[in-house]
Design a protein that fits this description.
This protein is of the alpha/beta class and 196 residues long. It has one domain: Rossmann fold, CATH 3.40.50.620. It has 7 helices and 5 strands; from the N terminus they run E-H-E-H-E-H-E-H-E-H-H-H. Helix 1 packs across helix 2, helix 3 crosses helix 4 and helix 4 runs parallel beside helix 5.
Length: 196
């Protein structure tokens, strides 16, 4: 495995108290495993909380993942946070903004196996050809029926993304941001950031 600039770990929700889900812990564990094998010397934990959440949790997904990674032996100074995203396209978009500021061009993306197709589509759309990334699946601890149910849900979301970004060239930040403003959970934030 060739070393990359960092390991991105995508959030998968937190409890109202800010605790990681079992799937979230699994993603962190896979990211830590990559880190300890020398795949990268930095980790970027991605996620505020899901756009579906009605009450803001006590901590963001990114904070909870970083805290768990530190209990597994990762130095806090090697952990970075992206705390604005509320879905997969946001994970990619806001992670890209961070990576560009650091001049990091290659990374691993750790997520659950059922989440890989949507993540691949979203990240290709956001990052284009200027970045190099590799998807790494983590264990899900879900039954076959639960995985199949999630895969169906993911297919619907991929269809939504394809419709939303059909006229957007891969890697075009401005066009991606403009399309994202059609998602209610990003409209206000992206306008405040003056990105569109």
């Amino acid at each position: 495995m060739q070393q990359k600039d960092c390991i991105l770990v995508l959030g998968s929700g937190v409890t109202p108290r800010g605790d990681l889900t079992l799937i979230g812990k699994s993603r962190v564990e896979k990211g830590v495993e990559l880190y300890k094998r020398g795949a990268a010397q930095r980790m970027l934990f991605c996620g505020a909380y899901s756009y579906k959440v009605k009450n803001i949790p006590a901590s963001t997904e990114a904070q909870a993942m970083r805290n768990y990674a530190c209990t597994l032996g990762i130095a806090r100074e090697h952990c970075f946070l992206e705390e604005q995203s509320k879905d997969t396209i946001g994970n990619g978009y806001f992670a890209k903004q961070f990576l560009e500021r650091q001049n990091w061009r290659s990374f691993f993306v750790v997520t659950s196996n059922y989440h890989l197709p949507k993540t691949e589509y979203a990240f290709k759309k956001v990052f284009g050809n200027e970045f190099s990334f590799e998807l790494v699946p983590s264990l899900t601890y879900l039954s076959t029926d639960e995985i199949l149910e999630r895969l169906d849900s993911e297919k619907e979301k991929i269809h939504l993304y394809k419709e939303l970004f059909k006229d957007v060239l891969d890697g075009d930040d401005r066009a991606v941001a403009k399309a994202m403003t059609r998602l209610p959970w990003y409209a206000q934030l992206l306008k405040i950031m003056s990105l569109v």
